[in-house]
Amino acid sequence: MTKSFLIAAPTSGSGKTTVARGLMALLVKKGMKVQPFKCGPDYIDTKFHEAVCGRPSVNLDTFMASEAHVKELFTHYGADADVCVVEGMMGLFDGYDRDKGSSAEIARVLGLPVVLVVDARSAAYSMAALLSGFLHFREGVRIAGVIFNKVGSEKHRAMLQQVCDDLQVECFGFLPKTAELEQGSRYLGLDFSEKMEHETLVALLEQQVKWEKLLAL
Q1: Fewer beta carbons below 10 Å: N end or C end of the chain?
Q2: Distance (Å, rounded) from C-alpha 195 to C-alpha 131?
């Protein structure tokens, strides 16, 4: 049975692109056939996905296509994959008309669990209010858990874990605030042409994220 999940974020710039591509690379490294997808009409991220996964990345867009067609695309291209990883766009609920055409709509249409990548660099327990809003905003959109990005210290990490414990939401892991990844990032995401940056990211995700739990979703 093919495993599937969608990587999203509260806002653009939270790190979802870096995490999505890094997870794709990590799962490929583990010997899996990874089928990548991208929400919305983005034809640049799909090229990065293809370079990582060795398979064409497919756009899922409920603005230009019907829900039925999006389902057909997802089923067809993911048929022989071990895992389907869908990268969201912008913020989770950002669409062309409120949340129409958003990553959340794609998750609802396909029944995908959502993993939220959250930039935690400027907050601690305030994240509880933010996440509570996302968790309960729309019925039919299941946020399965959180990956915190740009975590500053062990104390910061412990406070963020407390947020997840209090909200009873899975914390899939933490990515530290590191100069290596910040220097390697640019507009449109991490530059995977740099081998060192690629390997650093994959190693961080393998150590800091419960990637096996993602496959259990």
Answers
A1: N
A2: 34
Domain extents for the chain?
A: 3-215
3-state secondary structure of 36: strand
Rounded Cα gap, residues 53 and 170, in angstroms: 27
Q: How far apart are CA 48 and CA 209, in angstroms?
A: 21
Question: Would you call 200 helix, strand, or coil by DSSP?
Answer: helix
Cα–Cα distance measured from residue 118 to residue 9, given in angstroms and rounded to the nearest whole number? 6
Is residue 179 scored above 50 in pLDDT? yes
> First vs last Cα of the chain: how many Å apart?
12
Each residue's pLDDT tens digit, 39-78: 999 888 999 999 999 999 999 999 999 999 999 999 999 9
Helix %, strand %, coil % for the chain, to 5? 40, 25, 35
3-215 CATH, one of 3.40.228.10, 3.40.50.700, 3.40.190.170, 3.40.50.300: 3.40.50.300
pLDDT at 184 over 70: no
> If DSSP codes are grouped into helix, strand and coil, which group holds residue 53?
helix
Q: 3-class DSSP state for residue 86?
A: strand
Of residues 13, 215, 217, 6, the one with CA closest to residue 103: 6
Task: Name the pLDDT band for 187 (thresholds 50, 70, 90).
Answer: very low
Is residue 118 within 8 Å of 148, Cβ to Cβ?
yes
**Residue 198 — very low, low, confident or very high, per pLDDT cuts 50/70/90?**
confident
Q: State pTM to two decimals.
A: 0.93
